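Re: Re: ligand-bound prediction request (bumping)

Still looking for help on this. To restate: I need the protein modeled with glyceraldehyde-3-phosphate bound, output as structure tokens. Inputs repeated here so nobody has to scroll up.
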Amino acid sequence: MPLVTSKEMLEAALEGHFAVGAFNANNMEQIQGIIDAAVEERSPVILQVSQGAINYVGLSLATAMVKTAAEEATVPVVLHLDHGASFEQNVTCLRAGFTSLMFDGSKLVYDENVRITRKIVEMSSVVGIPVEAELGKVLQSRDNVSEADVRAAMTDPDQAADFVERTGISSLAVAIGSVHAMEAAEAELDIDRLKAIRAKVNIPLVLHGSSGVKESSEVEAIQYGISKINVATMLNQAFIKGILDGYAANPANIDPRKWLALSRDGVKEVVRQKMRLFGSSGKATASGFVSPATSHRSAELGHLE
Ligand code: G3H
Ligand code: ZN
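Reply:
Sorry for the wait, this slipped through. Here it is.
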């Protein structure tokens, strides 16, 4: 089916107390693994590309691959810009056909984050494309962050309410204890902070850096309004494992497909497990996604073509 926007999908998730996985892809096999898992699980899915992925694949090829994979899929798929760094990048991705945008102004001073986010929302809302933005900072594990650093970077609930009101965003990425690119799931989220944010903000909330979060904590966070969960590092680990396993089994092989097929299967299995954990399995229909309010709700509103 044609790509849909994230707005209706995340609102259905919020209402239905599940989360949609937003899976990062850097190449064709990762896209295929993600979409295949979604189809088999009957799950809505967000496929997201970062600036790094765009640099690696090229914007038009990345967009074309995801669009084609989505059109062949029988579940709703969103193409999302992950951690968009500027107004210009958001405009470029909107023009390319992305159906969900993000501006990450978390490193900017607050008023500048508000200003640029608002400008992107004004621009993209003309054609009905939703925008995610980040408040507080989800830090990077490569910066050797301490617990005190993570705590100091957490989202302030009152500021979150002000930010949502002033920017008009459709979803908010919150810093509640996760750190990007952790290689083991060890972090516990600050659920009390999430509850305090939820009490003041009624749009869908987004968890970044999920690869480093304990599954039990993710499940609890979904109950308190996390509706989109970003997963990248775990998929890269599964991808690399496929290549290493393929090499170990047959180091003389010179056909890349034999190893990349193992990588694709590995990515697919991680995505499948996450969809089950997040409760999104079984929430897609052939024409849209299920929500408790409208058991067979069409995603027609989210269609762009
Ligand atoms: O934006 C992407 C994510 O927040 C992914 O984080 O690599 O820790 O899973 P992760
Ligand atoms: Zn992130």
